[in-house]
Amino acid sequence: MSTATRPRPADAHKDWAVPNLQRGLAILEYLASERHDASITQLSAQLKISTASVFRITGALVELGYLAREPQTKRYSLTNKFLRLGQPRSRDESLAGCALDALRAIRQQTRETTQLCCLIDAEMVIIDQLLALHPFKYSADLGARCPAYSCAPGKAIVAFLPADEQEALLEQLRFKKFTETTITSKRALRDELARARDCGYAIDRAEGMPGIHCVAAPILDHHGRAVGAITIAGPANRVPEAEFSAIGQLIIRGTQRTAERFNR
């Protein structure tokens, strides 16, 4: 092909550009990154998209189940549908499907809120949850995020990442002190990750939220890499440090059953 007839990069870009798709993705990414709801006017102003286009696109995304519209405020927010799309999958089943029996068993034995979590960037994300059997219970929204260094499931997953990925993640971290026990240095976190890898489970001594203890173990794939974690969370008086080891072993058995189902 001669130089005269070869498509220029700009021309090639036009061949695959789908404006409405790109605008829809921009809306979804904005809502995901800001982690709040937004009005049509706000989306239009922030993304430089006409209000008419935003109206049509958000309407379609609501119909498809990706956005929710609050009737009174008329503001849009992401639904949990992305949690189902983004979670790891085995050949036949989602990670949540593989973990459900283990989540139920662990919740029944501990009576505490039991969660399935995955890692996105340097944050832990809750993708499934069974609430505690006690009248007073810890709970979080599905899709809720927290820094990996301040929670047991985040540490459990990071501890079982390949060394190069773990180090790359550590370089991303900007530590923030949430409580008196929050880990605030890479050295302390590396020590904690090494301990978690040695014993097979990670702990959270009220590091992300005052008074809440967590214990978590990773779900490992065929290569020994963590694809997720199961954790229990509850008040420190019901999940005391003296029981961390026993709870850790209980959760390990649950994650092993989940891994067997996920990896088959």
Explain what this protein looks like in three dimensions:
This protein is of the alpha+beta class. The N and C termini lie far apart (50 Å). It has helices at 9-16, 19-34, 40-47, 51-64, 81-86, 95-110, 152-159, 163-172, 186-199, 244-263, and strands at residues 67-69, 76-78, 113-120, 123-130, 145-147, 202-205, 212-220, 226-235. The model is unreliable at 1-12 (pLDDT under 50). The strands form 2 sheets. It has a 6-stranded antiparallel beta sheet with strand order 5-4-3-8-7-6, sandwiched between helices. Strands 1-2 form a two-stranded antiparallel sheet. The protein has 2 domains: 9-79, Orthogonal Bundle (Arc Repressor Mutant, subunit A); 84-263, GAF domain (Beta-Lactamase, 2-Layer Sandwich), CATH 3.30.450.40. Helix 2 (19-34) packs across helix 4, helix 3 packs across helix 4 (51-64) and helix 6 packs antiparallel against helix 10. It contains 10 helices and 8 strands.
